[in-house]
Design goal:
single chain, about 240 residues, alpha/beta, 7 strands, globular
Length: about 240
Amino acid sequence: MNQFSRTQLLYGEDAMKRFASARVAVFGVGGVGGYVVEALARSGIGALDLIDHDTVALSNLNRQIIATMDTIGELKVDVAARRVASISPDCVVRTYPVFYLPETQDQFDFTQYNYVVDAIDTVTGKLAIIENAKKADVPVISSMGAGNKVHPAGFEVADIYQTSVCPLAKVMRKECKKRGIDSLKVVYSKEQALTPIGDSKEEVSGKKVIPGSTAFVPSVVGLIIAGEIINDLAGSV
């Protein structure tokens, strides 16, 4: 018996071997990506590349699994790596404290990955991740807008061209079409985003936009993404 024995009861020994030999890149380890990393580590994924330039802030405590009073100010990738080590010591974790953009994409060889997760916020970065994954013929799954939403049961898995309502998905549909990307697995919701109450604006990376968030929406999106990865790698989807 090991820490993954209950998972093996559902997927079998061969699938567990595939998980152990898989290398997954998670771009963004915050509200959504942190839960992706958590679930993949608990599922026996053998190698994780964690990419995020940010540090843990006090405002992250309401939704990010890596955020505690003890981790404030630390690089998110470092905190996530320690957490993975405490769950699955044999998992090989590589950390990249960089902001993923077209200017930094040459640091990454997508052909080394078995799966890629896009859990970042910037459209230019998301498109660069998706394009590079497609060029390398590696499966990729992308998180659409989760901010200002309060109904986790509304999130679903779909192809980008089957999405509606979500403003980020609309932008991504247009940009993917322009780039000749004919399909993209995403997690999104048709829920209309709420307008934050009161003065929620502050300066962040030159943008005066701070979305509201909860403990239960980003976590659900991250767990859905992780479930898709595990089922795809197991060959059950």
